[in-house]
Fold:
Amino acid sequence: MAAQEIDNSTTWGKELWDQFDNIATHTQKGIDFIERFGGFIRDRSAIEVEYALKLRRLVKNYQPKKSKEDEENEFSSLIAFKNVLKEVADLAGQREVVAENLQNQVLQGILLLAKNLREERKKALNQGASLTQSLHTQIGTLDRAKRSYEKAFREAEKAIESYHKADADFHLSRADVEKQRVNMNIRNSQSEDAKSEYANQLQITNKQQQQHYQIALPEVFNRLQELDEKRTRGMKEFIKRSADVEYEVSPIIAHCLEGIVKAADSINEKDDSMIVIEKYQSGFQPPGDIPFEDLSKPDPDAANNSQTHNSSTGLNHMTGKGTTKDKLKKRVGIFGIFTGNKEDFSDLPPTQRRKKLTAKVQELQQKVAQEQAASDGLMKMKGVYEANSMLGDPRTVEEQLNESVNRLDRLRHELLRYQKLLEQANNQSFIQHSPQSNRVIQNGQRSSRHSNGSSNHENSHEDNGEDHPDDAGSLSRSASESSVQQAQNGLNINNNGSSASPESGLGTSHTSLPGSGQGSTNEQPMNEEFYEADTPLGTCRALYPFDATSEGSIPMSEGEELQVIEVDQGDGWTRVRRFSSKGWEEGFVPTSYIECTLYA
Structure:
């Protein structure tokens, strides 16, 4: 009996009683169709998976690289873009959910339904074929009975005719007539038996045929009709289910889209502009007006420098007015403009140095707090162990406690050092012009330089721990004065774990004063004199070998003598000239690697 009651007025068993083959073909095509729909769902699910994979790959490829500096000064547009990438990744996750639900809830159901339909159809068709074969067998039996009856009837008629002829023939004996009569009776009897068998088989066949076409076969057709309607209903349900899969993730997708819009609304161009200022502000003031130099008036400083000019004329002639444009490299190629390579960040502009020092102080304060908490915990543990030895041996904590105290002392000492550096940077009287503006003047006709032993500055000024900028705003003494000031403030950096190696940039530079000793607390300010561009300012001796690895730098060997072309402007580099097999070369070398003797 079918699971669903079928209207008898529109059943296949009644209306299609003679369309067994067409019904079998139709049901087969229906099952093939729903399997094809299953293939559509499978391919769509694969596309969803591939789409999600490509979205995730897209997010990975466009993910901004993480850096500590960018995290501190992230632009709102960059933060918004990161949020957009997160939302797109969530969208990819929802596409994966859609693909998974299509496979588990739709495709699996289609495959299971198609399998059941095939099995039920096979059973129904086998039953229908069996019923049809049984009916055909009965009809064959009826045909044979009919042919036997027809044969017996014809033979009986012939026997009757032969008997009547023999009975009318007076030439035949009585025995021959009796023989024909007996044969006639036998044939009539056989004809009656065949007739009875034929009638019986006809009755059986009619009954079976009626049963076949009115009950048995309609039941098979109705089962096939129910099977086909089940397939149609399944198609309807699976299509709706595939839409429901999309509906289930649509709120999350809408939330992701809202997040993208929210990320776009969070972009603030004014805040980004302020971040650019905070990130790149140097703290220098724009250069002032370039003074007019009247060459017709005598220059007393020029008279004092005549000997130096005459001694270097030959060298300038050999180099063709000093450095060419191809050989002169920008300092920017040697060091990052706002990336501190020195541990005291003295190679950074004032504003950026204060920011780096502030960040370093905050970092050390956090480390000190963490280490203090760890030390307090060890003290409490030691006290508990001393009060109750059953809980543990206090000597096991003693070693850890000592190590913690030592680490805490080192951190506090380092924190005090950077706090003093920060205080010094905040109280420092910064030079008003940037090194780039000074370079414009120095590469022109004249530039301001420091020298030692000038009669205009016979009285030395006491160094009070502050920088003393010269009249032209040069940065040549900022690094050396910073070292002297640290020594005056009691900050012995060499005792704090930093060596006096060339890499440290401390304790080995002698560019401040010719012949001055290391660690002196008083420093004689150099007189201001003017030199022509690229005129040697003095000589220097390499204290350590140096391999040039940066653009614009030149190598030197230990003990090599070089000419000083431009003194350190606070960035840790000095421009020198050396003679090699290729001729005269100019470039930059680390100030801490050389000992300078400037011309008087």
Q: What stands out?
A: The longest helix spans residues 76-168. Residues 572 and 591 are 5 Å apart (CA to CA). Strands lie at 447-451, 527-531, 538-542, 561-566, 573-580, 583-590, 594-598. Confidence is low (pLDDT under 50) at residues 1-6, 303-338, 429-533.
